[in-house]
Structure formats: C-alpha cells, structure tokens
Amino acid sequence: MGNRLGRAMSAVAALAMVSGCGGGGSGSTLASGGGGSTGTSGGGGTTATGCTLRERQDWAAAQLKEWYLFPDTLPASLDPTPYTTVGDYIDALTATARAQHKDRYFTYLTSIASEDAYYNSGSSAGFGVRLSYDSVAKRLFVAESFEGAPALAAGIDRGSEIIAIGTTTANLQNVSDIFTSSGAQGVSDALGPSTAGTSRVLKVVTAGVTSTVTVTKTDYSLTPVSSRYGAKVITEGGQQYGYINLRTFITTADPALRAAFNSFRAAGITNIVIDLRYNGGGLISIADLMGDLMGRNRSSSEVFEYTTFRPEKSSNNSTHMFTTQPEAIAPTKVAFIGTGGTASASELVINGMVPYLHANAALIGTNTYGKPVGQIAIDKSACDDRLRVIAFALQNANRRGDYYDGLANFVEASCQAGDDVTYQLGDPREASTRSALDFLEGKACSKITANAGLGGKQAVVAQPRELLVPQDASTAQRETPGLF
C-alpha cells in the first residue's frame, strides 16, 4: 500500500462519533464558518470571500492547534506562503508526527460532498476494481471486482492481470514499462482520473486468456458485503463455519452484517472467519456494531472500545459498551484475515475482541497497517472543505491501543498466510481462507512477524503485493485501498 495512503469555528456542533477510519479516516463532525465557494480536496485558493488559499491555510492551522492529538509536534509557527495548496501546508504542519510514525498522512483536506456520498452509500466513480501490484515483477493484478460496476461487466474479476493500459488500442503501454519509468504512481496516472466518463483500453489476462477491452468509469455504489461471496457458510469435515468479507465500514454495511450474523446464529455457528484483508476502515459506528454482533455473551458493563481525546478535550471522550443485538452470536473462535491494507476501524474490531477471546481470536495473513487513531471532521462548508484531523486514540478494554506498527504483536494468536488471487475470496482453497479454517479446526501454523506493518507494507508471503493507492487518493480510495 505504500508509505502514504492519501494526501490529500465559529459554532461547534454536538459531537456525534461516526467513524475513525483507515487510510484517510473519519470521526466526529464539527461545523466551521467560511465564505461561499467550491473548494477542492487539498487544492489551491478560490475567488469567493473566505476561501482564498491563505484564508483556508490559516483556518486549517487553527483547527490543528485546537484539536490535533499530538499538539506538542506542531511547529510554534509556520509561514504558509511557500505552500501552493492547503494540503501541502497541512503536510508540513504534521511532518514531525509523521516522522514519529504517529500520523502517516491521516490528517488531510477533502471534499465534503464527495466524502458524504461515499460514507452514506459507497458512491464513487471508477472501473469498480481493487488493484494490487508486485513491485519486484512489475505486474498489476485485480484483487477484487465489485458488483454493478463496469469492470466486472467486462469480465474482469479477481485474478485478472492487467498487462497494458492505453487511451486507445494504438497507444497501449505495457504495465511493466510504466512501472520502470514512473513507478506505482505512473500506473495510477495511466488509469486516469476518478471521474465518470473516463475510458481506458486495457489488455487483460484472465484464466490464461488474453483480451483487449475498453472500460469506462461510471458512478456506482460499492456493496460493502459482496452478493457473490461476502457472507456464507462453509462446511468441512461435518462442521460448519461462518465466513464474512467486509469491504468497508460504511452505513449500508449495517443490514448486510446483521443478515450475515443472523444466518450464523440460526445455524448455531460459533466459529467464524471475518475477512478484512483489504479493509482500510470507515465508520466507528459500524465497527461497534460488528463488535456487538460478536457479543451475545457479553454484558452491557463490558467495554468494546475507548475513544480518548487529548486532555483538554477529554469532555469528548466516549466508551462503547457491548450492546445487545438480536442477530448476535457468542463466538467460540474467530479468525480475522488481515494484510497491510487492513487499517483503523478494521484494526479496532480485531483489537476489541482480544481481551475476551484471547488466543481464540487470531490474525490470519500478514501484519496490519497500524492506525490506532481516528479523525474528526471539521467543515468549512462554504468552501466544500472538510479537514480530517487526527484527534483521538482508540483502545480496547485493556486500554491497549499503541499498535502503530500493526497488530501482530497485540494479538495472542496469528497464522502467516498469503493472498492467492487465483481463487475467489472465501474459497477454502484460497491461501488465507484455508489458513483461517485450519486455525478454527485447531491446526498448527507459523506466527506472523511484526516488521511487515511498518509503512503499511505486507509481509513477503507468497507474492509480495501491495494495494495500489495514488498519492492524491479520494476518500473512497483511502477507505477502500486499491480502488479504481
């Protein structure tokens, strides 16, 4: 996933904790004044009153001074004049925390409109695929393809390899050549902007067959739990195991999660696989729901997660106790599949269950990204500016939450496994799914090492792939790393 997931108050509303997400992230939403405009994510100045570049930069600096979780790392003063965008200035302000591995571009500026569209319905524009790449072999693979989107309609699915990209058949460039000349960012650039109507010609190899297809980016809504493989029951050796793959923590995940756990409960299933291998995070409310759905045998006096602001903002602290849900199960063992693309709300769920399941909750795959903090959203609505500020830390019932280098050293059990794109997610033959089932069945495995979490890199298991994330990632691409 690379070393950066995206770059990008006159009246304060009552804090309503909504999220604390992955590559980008979200949290409480605050209101802030400003003049009328249509500002862009991390962009330069606008012409409307209150929305010049300098006014937006000064506004961003003031919000950081008031809310930033690591105020001691902020410079006493920093002249914004040399910085040509608000985003560049924010990066400079947070550079010390970034050097300390606490804020890896988690504080950023984005668009209110585009972010709301994503969190409410998963809406974004693209081909509808999640891409991963092998930086050594300079190859590009489809890790996942989404229902209702153009790529799947064109026959491009998990396991397909994109070997050439162009705007026409006449100017196709080999992916390996793009990697050689321009690196991963060059490949992102070649795929075009995340705007509806953008077309690309792709040469694709699927199941050994090479084809050339034209795919046009369209607006679509991401389904958080796949209708094809997202939730199912796997039967092996006379035993039943629940499997659920959650792509992202957005509002529409609520009914899908409830339906999945209700089916497990009806079948009497208590051993489950929760596949979060590409899940970059999302709404804390959905993470809390997932914890509740594993809390049938927990009481309302037991803590799932603590949210803690800096001392002078402690009035905003909150605690989520397990809340009774009619669809909940009492899990015996849970296998959480994770990778370097597993971040924030995903890590919160895993960390939250460790105090209760101990070694019966295992991390399967590789180390996770390492984001034990969350953002609040501060809006300068007239400029369409939403500042995402790291403002709170996330901890489990044992007050453990310092997993900046991933969860490998925080879980009591883990099993190293690869991500085999030659099989669909949830297929018992797929490497991580197989390892998860083996854990549930009590079989031995090799423990995950922690060093792979640094910078969000995946461990070198099988094929050393990373999720493709552009430098100027959209909200959708931060929360669904690899999305194009």
Task: Sketch the major β-sheet.
Answer: 7 strands, antiparallel
Number of strands: 21
Rg, nearest Å:
22 Å
Strand content: 15-25%
Summarize it.
This protein has about 475 residues and is α+β, with helices and mostly antiparallel strands.
Task: Describe the protein.
- Mean pLDDT is 88; it is low at 1-27, 31-46 and 452-463.
- Helix 1 (53-67) packs parallel to helix 2 (86-93).
- The chain contains 11 helices and 21 strands.
- The longest helix has 16 residues, at 175-190.
- The strands form 4 sheets. Strands 4, 5, 6, 7, 8, 9 and 21 form a 7-stranded antiparallel β-sheet that branches. Strands 1, 2, 14, 15, 18 and 19 form a 6-stranded mixed β-sheet that branches. Strands 11-12-13-16-17-20 form a 6-stranded mixed β-sheet, with helices on both faces.
- It is α+β, with helices and mostly antiparallel strands.
- The chain has helices at 53-67, 86-93, 95-99, 112-121, 150-153, 175-190, 253-266, 284-293, 345-357, 431-440, 475-479, and strands spanning 29-32, 108-111, 123-126, 129-134, 139-145, 161-166, 173-174, 199-206, 209-216, 218-221, 231-236, 239-245, 271-275, 303-309, 318-321, 333-338, 361-365, 373-380, 385-395, 413-416, 465-467.
SSE layout:
Blueprint: E1 29-32, H1 53-67, H2 86-93, H3 95-99, E2 108-111, H4 112-121, E3 123-126, E4 129-134, E5 139-145, H5 150-153, E6 161-166, E7 173-174, H6 175-190, E8 199-206, E9 209-216, E10 218-221, E11 231-236, E12 239-245, H7 253-266, E13 271-275, H8 284-293, E14 303-309, E15 318-321, E16 333-338, H9 345-357, E17 361-365, E18 373-380, E19 385-395, E20 413-416, H10 431-440, E21 465-467, H11 475-479
Parallel strand pairs: 1-18, 12-13, 13-16, 16-17, 17-20
Antiparallel strand pairs: 2-19, 3-10, 4-5, 4-21, 5-6, 6-7, 6-8, 8-9, 11-12, 14-15, 14-19, 18-19
